[in-house]
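Structure tokens please, single chain.
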Amino acid sequence: MKETVSIPVAWPIRETSIFRAGSHAWNLGDVTRVMGILNATPDSFYDGGAWMMEDAVERRVWQIAEEGADLIDIGGESTRPGATPIDVEEEWRRIEPALRVATRDGYPLPVSVDTTKPEIARRAVESGASVINDVSGLRAGPEIAEIAAKSGAGLLLMHMKGEPRTMQVDPRYEDLLGEIRSSLAASAGVAERAGVPRERILVDPGIGFGKTREQNVSLLRNVSVFTGIGAGILIGTSRKSFLGALLDGLPPQERLEASLASFAGAILAGAHWIRVHDVRAAVRAARIADALRVG
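Here you go.
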């Protein structure tokens, strides 16, 4: 008698859906989507100051497209632990050159703007940005969601405990996964009431934003907890400090392999999007993780 071998399901189910932003739409589920980072900041933890000059900005904008990203995320205010806030005009001065390059005719990627300021969000979508990435998760109120609703932009909502200056000072949770899931669901609810449909919302549990090393690992292991919110899930672990801590203190410049491993883990756990500095390497890692999921 021929023996039948039962093959167990290896990974949590990754929900399939569509994420819409402006005139763009991505199928989510079978293929992981990649957001490439452009930090137009002098003080970001990894690439601070690298993309401040106009010629460097243009090279980086095109590099992100050529290496296979689905979306470019442009930010002008560092949110690393301990970062000091800047005003609207300084933030706009930093990001406007990159936005100008990335919204020219012929540029192949839609643009996300990484900001917590409604005025920056408004100017960015008027300049052609298709996604607003709010790391505060609408903490200040629905105004950014209202801008997204009026413009048709997609909205990425992240969880952050505290604020950048204080978020890593002894962050504590009674129920890590439950509290973050509830917070993200509440943020998505605020956005929906402001007129942003769920298919235009992504959520991000905010790895590294008010979490300890152990809490970050738990979030990465349990990405599937956030699927019930009804929005696509983005994970951002690229070169973050908890990866260095897991490898006996490696600096950001030596965390590429750790980042790739964390991307693969996030994808296998159910993430739809990854936010990355090293686009080509991340795209390749994502394709292997995708093959493991569906093979």
